[in-house]
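Researcher: Go.
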Amino acid sequence: MSRLAWSTVGAALALSLILALADAGPGKIRLLLIVSGIYVALLIAGSLSPSLDFYLLSARRSPVDQPWIALTFDDGPDPAITPALLDLLRREHIPAAFFCVGAAARQYPALVAQAAADGHLIGNHSDRHGYGWTIAASSQIFAEFAAANQTLAHILGDAPRFVRTPAGVSRPDLAEIFAQLQLTNVAWDVRGLELLYRDPARIAARIARTARNGSIILLHETYYGTRIIEPQQALAIAQRTIAQLRARGFRFVRLDQLLKQPDYAMTPMNADWLPEPGAAMLKARVNESATTRYTGRT
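Model: Structure:
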């Protein structure tokens, strides 16, 4: 059973025992309130913390016994920062994963196409990066992630295989919906916490200190729809993080390769990294995807 199911059964049993055995009065009411409060707290914590695997499983780290890590970026694309990040990753020969917001991808399709053409993995990060879907009907949740899937498939020719919810939030029904959309849920092992730490040097040092073999690193291009993190700050965080992780001996592999079986036959990607075989084909389609499909120009 899932952890949601176990906690529900546990809460039901505890409430039943209290009702059956406890004497009537304020003490009984107090016990009922305590158990109910603990159960509600578990539901909230399970929604907000992907590491609990409460409502659905998430890939947070690979079991590889190699100094391999995957770099991922959320909340793009954004013309103020995405091109600079792509230039940085190109210079450093690093394959990354970009979890894109559907609405932003529709606005800047060329950036998504270019990231894919450079050999990066594109993932679904919901369509509008809101949180209303967390309390919405199942049909609305499906529509939220299906719309982003459709947008990204229209740009790239294929639907994404990986999804990350905004802030890693989850809820009941999400596992079934992702299964219907053939999406694998991905969280993280180490995150930048850019809003908390702010300073690029401090953020990079913390990430390098806590990263392990198989870690999935979460950074942000931006915080969608805001300028809480300035483009130069986001770029400096990425630059310093890459440098410090390499100084520790880590090698960057693309997320989908990191999540394969530990005995997967591959050459660890570092300075000798080459884009995936489909990159050349995607490069040829960048102009078509970004121009013809969205502006009608030929």
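Model: The first strand starts at residue 68 and ends at 76.
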